[in-house]
Each structure stands twice: as C-alpha cells, then as structure tokens.
Fold each of these.
Amino acid sequence: VLGDLTQPRYATAATIVARMKASVPPYNSQKVRRAIQQAVDNEIVMEVGIAGLGEVAENHHVGPMHPDYAAIGSVPADQKSAAAALEEAGHKDTVLDLVSVDDDWRRLSTDAIAAQLLDVGIKTRRTIVSESVFSDSWKRFPFSTTNWNPRPLGIQVLALAYRSDAPWNESEFSDPEFDRLLNIALATPDVEARRSTMALLQQRLRDSGVIIQPYWRKLFRSASPRVKNYQMHQSFEHHLEDVWIEPV
C-alpha cells in the first residue's frame, strides 16, 4: 500500500541483458564471455538497478513466468574463477567498454555490472550515451545493455534473439546445435513435451556466456482500495471486464 493506494504487482518477462557481441574480440572467446558472466552477482544488479523490485534471473532469458520454462537452477557468481579465466585467456589487461543508455534503471543496472567487473580486477570503462545515440547504434556496440519487453513464451524469445542470423540477434550468437534444438522446440506445440528441449537450450545459451541477464522486472500500477480486481498486465493491457468499484 502506498498512502491510501494499493499497488498490484506482476512479475513479468520484461528484462535487461548485458550482451556481448560474439563476433567481436575479445567477446569472440567463450572463455572471456564466461569469465565476465561469472564475475557478476545478479541479485546485486537487481538491488541497485530496480531497488529489488523483480525476480533474479539465470542468464538464459527464459523465466518461471513462461509456461515452457525449464528449471535448470542458477549458477552463483564466482569472482575468483572469473579473474583467473580472463587472465588465462590472455585478456588480463584488456579494457572492456560497457555501454548503456542514460535513463535511470538501465544506467544504474549497468553501473552495478561494471562495478563488479572492476571489483575482481577486470578493467572496464563505462560509456553512457543519450537515447538518440543509443537508438541509432545499439546493435553495433560490442558490449552493452538493452532492455527486452516480455514475450508470452520462452521459445519466442530464444527464436527472436539467439537463432543464428535472426534479425534481433544483437549478440550475433551462432550455434548450429542450438539452432537444431530450437527447431525441435518450435515444432513441439505442447509446452510439457517442449520443456526437456528447453532445458537443453537454456543450458546451452547460458554456457555460451553471451549474456548477463540479471533479473525479471516487476511492473505495478496504483489504484484506490475501492477498485477491485484491478491487475497489472505485463503488456500494459487493461482488462476491465472483471473490475468493479466497491460502493462507499
């Protein structure tokens, strides 16, 4: 309750990813990408970026709100392994440039990622650009954060964002085995039957290290306590057919 208002909240598939362009050095090395991913505690990013108003994610862009989500568990941050792996890959002195748009929660979330990289000795520069610059250039940045709006099914996100040569594949992730499994999942309409293939896809995407996906955002709206059954929808839709106002 905020004052005399209620705030229905909904855990959505809206999120942010820090993605590395797999075609651009040093991010063309899986070992480098995994080191960067392992250095970041997703819960810290959620606390700093959105004041904890979300659910911690698992670095594979499919969540419990998706009917076809497979529970493969989370992987805790491992800062010691991250620093050692980056040094082993020959990039101890490489300076990463992490880019974000200048718009509060995305900027703060990216700051939290950069701070953790610096904490383990990964040299990182923070570049913050205006909305107009980001809109023109977001797909070209080698390492940047982008927000993703929700999709009803996890398989939709994977097909849209991580299939080889997909138009929205901003990380330029390309894995023939991932694409093969994706085709199997897309051809399996029953979500229960699809889940075993989703588990393989989620694991393969996370192991690639192409994204740090720290959290799922909760969205909320405010209303008088007299407004009953007024729910938040992840697509900001208004379904008022079941809403009523309690008489005074």
Note: Strands lie at 9-20, 54-56, 96-101, 124-129, 143-148, 211-212, 215-220, 227-228, 244-245.
Amino acid sequence: MRAGQTGIFDSITRHVAGMLDAHRFSHTLGVTQLAVSLAVRHRHDAAKCAQAALLHDAAKCLPREQQAALAARSGYPVDGWAETYPSLLHGPAAAQWARESLGVTDPEVLDAVAYHPTGCGRPSPVLEILMAADYCEPLRDFPGVDGLRRGVMDDLRRGLVAILA
C-alpha cells in the first residue's frame, strides 16, 4: 500500500460500514480480503481492487428510489432494465455515490463497482477480480464454491468463466 492510502481506506470503510447492515458489511470485508489476495496473486493493482471491493455494495441497503436516482445520474446504462431488474441498480448507484460522496474519480474503480453485478463487454482486471471475489468470498457457502475459489486463484479468467457458466 502506498503512503496515504491507509487513510483513504479507513475513510471508505467507515462510510460504507455506516450504510450497510452487519451481514452486508461482513460480506464486503470478505470480498475485499479475497480481491486483494487475487490482485496480489495475479499481479494486478491491489489498492484499486481493495477500493472497488469496499465500495461495490455501498448502495445495496439504500431505498430503491434512492438507488434509482443515483443510478440515473451515474451515466451508466440503466434504461431498459432498471424496472425489470431493480436489484442490479446497486452497482451504478454505488459508483455514483462514491463519486459524489467520496470524490472517487478512478474510472477503473468506478466501472468495476458499476458493472460488478452484470459484467460488461471489455472488463478490466479490477472488474474481473471484483466479480470473482464477490461470487467466491469466504462467507459464501454453496456446493462447488471451494473449487471455484481454487479456480480463480489458479487462473483468473478460466475461473471467472466457470463462475459465469
């Protein structure tokens, strides 16, 4: 971690902890832990992955109307699916919240947060790591999850394809 980043992560963590219920916050910390491990293992930017992971579900516990308003201002495409799949709004909403409330400007971090529920055509390494970490974080317990965790550690892309399958 570079000098000065500890304060940024502490600030993000405090803000997010105040927005989420205990279960969702524990999930967020687990996603962050796995995202950093994956970033280190696959030689990607661990700080960006940690920031995206801490922010990814920040809007999840907000009322739907507030999520919709944030998502509408985000600039991410939500028209055509927001009414049908409102549970996906938390990604673009969290990205916009991070931009407005915390001053996050890194497009790779914001895109990873916005697209983590759906993916996108050309995912960055940060988005790939966030999607894998979100699906396989340590609190997840379902048949096959241990194999998926090993898969993303061994080969991120191949593991992500297995997750998406």
Note: The chain has a mean pLDDT of 93.
Amino acid sequence: MAGLSRAAVPVLTVNPGSSSLKLHVLDDAGTTTTAQELAVAAGRLDSADIATFLSAHPDVTAVGVRVVHGGRDFRQAVLVDQAVEDRLAKVADLAPLHDPPALSAVRAVRRACPDLPVVACFDTAFFAGLPAAAATYALPWPWIQRWGLRRFGFHGLSHAYATRRAPELLGAPPGELRLVICHLGAGASLAAVAGGAPVDTTMGFTPLDGLVMATRSGSVDPGLLLWIQHHSGLPVEEMEQALLFESGLAGLSGTSGDMRAVLSAADSGDDRAALALAVYLHRLRAGIASMAAATGGVDALVFTGGVGQHSPRIRAGACAGLGFLGVAVDPERNTTAGGGDRDVATTASPVRVLVIQAREDQEIAREVRRLLG
C-alpha cells in the first residue's frame, strides 16, 4: 500500500491487558493528543467500543497494536491481513495472559474500520537478533529444530524506547553505551544493551521466565516442577494457573502482588511480605549483575515501568548491592517526586542511574510509521 502522507500523521496505539485496554493517539512528534482506557470483559474488546472511539477521531490514519509474543513467525512489526491474523491466533498460547487480548483488539479494530491499516507490533521483535549464545537453550537439538525453541525476550517495546531515550539523556552516542534496562511492573524483565542492540535478557521462551513478578514466579528449577508433578499428579492446567497467577510477590506475601501492597505489609511487620520483598530484590540485583557481565560493564542502569518509575525504595534496594559495579544512588534525587526522565545517581558515580517513563505508545507509533511510510 502507499505510504502515509506527512499531512496524515495521527496514529492510534492499542495496548491490551487482561482487564483493560489503553488507547493513545500520537502525532508525528510523538506527543499524545488523546488517551483513554477501556474496560475489557474477559480480555475481549467490543468492536463497538473501538468504533465509537475511532468515530470521535476520524483523523487517525493507522493503528498499531502491541502483541507480546510473535513466536518464530514474527521478527518485526507487520501489516495485518487475514493470513497474519490467523497466524497470530496460532501463537497466542505462547503468552496466554497477553496474546489473546491483543488478538481480540486486532479483530475488533479490523471489524470496526476494515479500511484502516492495522500493524501488529511485537514485544519479542527487539530481541529477534539476540546473539545465539544468549538465545539458545541447552536442550535436545531435535526439540530446538522441531519447535523453534529459543529465548525470545519480552517488554521489547519498552526496552527499545529506553535504549533510544537513555543516550539522549546522557548526551552520548548510542553506539558507545552499555546499558542495563530494568522494566519493572506487574511483569518484569531486564535487558542488556551494548552499542544500541540487545545482547541478553531475563525473560525466555515465554514471559514467565526471569525475575520475580507480581503474580508470576519467574525462573524456577525445572526439576522442581517435574518433582511436583511426579509426586502430586498436578494437571498442567493447575500448574499453569499457579505459576502465572498465584506465585511471585502475591504467592510469597499473601497480598495481591501489587508492590505498594507488599511494601505496606512489610512496613507493618508482616514477615511473609518482608521475605517476598527480600527475594524480589535479591533476584533483581543478581539479574542486573548478570546483564552487566553480558555487556562487559555498564555505563548506565535504567529503571522504567510502573515500579521502576514510581518506587524509590525498589530502586534504592536494587542499587544498594551493586556498589561493586560502580552504582551509587543519590538519596535526595532518588526520592524527589516527579521531574520526568532523570538521572538519580550521585555526581561521583561512574555508572549513571536513569529513571525513564515507559513509552511503549511512542515505540508502537514509531514502528507503524516505519512500516507504512
């Protein structure tokens, strides 16, 4: 199809969740002109809702939808047609929390406005070029070939934005920086970035791997899971439910898993919440150190995502054990509310510590414009 004209610039970005859907309209400068959050029943978006939104914004020229898992089929953003939609449905079980709502959003937009270009933007695309040593599992080779098993990595849209934003804040060429990016929210992952490209990450074949998360376990010894199944006969469905929804901070602390609730309970003397917080920070510090090893050192540590942006205690707790890497946080800068994207390291710290607002919407819009014109 023909590229977008420079006069027709508004792009709608659609960021689906299991219970809500965020809609942002961005102009060519990346400024959000409209933002709305829609309630989504059972992860399914009503096409009438999206039609109502689009009728109020007739200047929208294209739509970008965040899709968490592209599997081995999708290594970059793609214009959606029926064949692509069908292929998206086949990989949806790789991210059962995220891909079904995204597929629902794609279908709703296409039904509401069949002539509007819809672009699927994948969280896995940023990591498609991971070095083989980082992406490959030490599993039987026939398994790897048959099923395309590899470390896919996630939160790629957020990590990609932070990768571009950090050099702007530091006034340094992207090719000269070694970054460790911490996307911390209900889901959490780290990315090691060297020369503007990812070289390692903590999430793997699915978004269940890596750090401790709100309700997800993160990395667990596979032998432990096999032991449970051998001794209890626990069905796969129950195991999946437990690992996705009943583990992580929620499982350890007995709270909802929301970091604010965990911190509040720990402050009130709840031992389980205190343990959950300690486990979370222990895994986070260890992960940061492993990412720094992958980049051969670190020039800047980046915190983004809801927890990364808004929890000074988590930033301070993570950095407290990283002095050996040269990380030193200024307590006053770190606890000052607001201020937008900023550096919270001490003046003398050889490693800068950046707080960057997560702007997946900007990255989605950028991908849409790149693909369409």
Note: Residues 343 and 354 are 4 Å apart (CA to CA).
Amino acid sequence: MADDQPVVREGLVSIINRQPDMAVVAAATDGRQAIELFRAVRPDVAVIELRLPVVDGPHAIRVILAEHPASRIVVLTRHDGDADIRSALEAGARGYLLKSMGPGELIQAMRSVLAGHRWIAPAAAVRLSEHIGETALTKREIEVLRLVVEGRSNKRLAAALGITEGTVKAHINRILSKMQVGDRTEAATQAIRRGIVYLD
C-alpha cells in the first residue's frame, strides 16, 4: 500500500485487514519507499496512489515491473483525468480505482487483478473513452503547455525554452488543435482537469 495521506493509508489498511484472507504487509508514504518495500516483501498485489511525493506513482510502477514483471499493481487515486489514467495504464497498472468508490469495490478489484484480470473504475473508463482517437501531445508540447498553465507570455515561454516566439506560436497552435480547444485559457484549464499538467 502506498499513499502519502496518513488518514487514507490507515483507512485502507483497516479495510483490507478486515478480510479473512488478506493482510497489508507494508505501507509506504512515497514512491521511493513503495519501490523499496515492494523489493523487501514482494506482495501479491500493490495498491499505489498516482501522485506520490519523491517518486510519482507511474514511475514507481515502471521500476517495480522492470524488476518483477509479473507483479499486480492497482492505482487508487482521486485523479480521474484521461492523461492520469493513460499514464498509469501505460506504466503497467492492472487496475485503476477512484477513492470515491466503496470498500467493496476495492476488495473486488484487488481479487480480480490478482486473478490476472484488469479493473478500471467505470467513471475512469468513461473519461478515458472521451479522448480516444485524439493525437497525443509531444514532450515539447507538454513542456510548452506547462508554461502556459503557469501564465507565461510567449516571450517568456520562448526565453525559458530557448526557442523563438514564432516556434512557441506554432507549438501553441498544434496544442489547441490536438486538444480541440479555442484558446490558451481553455487549453490550460483542460490540461489541469485531464491530468496532462499538475499544479504543485
């Protein structure tokens, strides 16, 4: 179990430990600790928050699966943006659950993932399906979008990335087209809502 919020972590541990055939063998507070504890105890299923301090959830998942390819990992988070979901699944998570679900769904999902199946919360599946077929943003476009979210002008954005203002405008036009939005403000709002860019 890996979650940086003590109340959430302790609540989940309590829910799981109430099952007669389940026990939490380790609880981590950040992504690096999750990797270290996984190496030490090799759990049947790991439940990991998407946005962890030190090392984020998707990176921790990739490290764990690189070392232990058969591992079963479920993401449990409040973040339901399509980019969040895609990031977790591409990293190798077998399940994606939202913290708004009931305890029974968590247990059912863990059992299903342990049996070799995938489990994606219905709300997350709907959010993911809304953006199927869209052209993915490049790494550079995401960098530009992150600076747009920070409120930087084209001039300051160009200086930060070491490119011309004309190149910035070209990137922004491609971003607006790919995200199917009309302006920078809408792009910034969607970027945060969808989990493309995080606000610290």
Note: The CA atoms of residues 97 and 103 lie 11 Å apart.
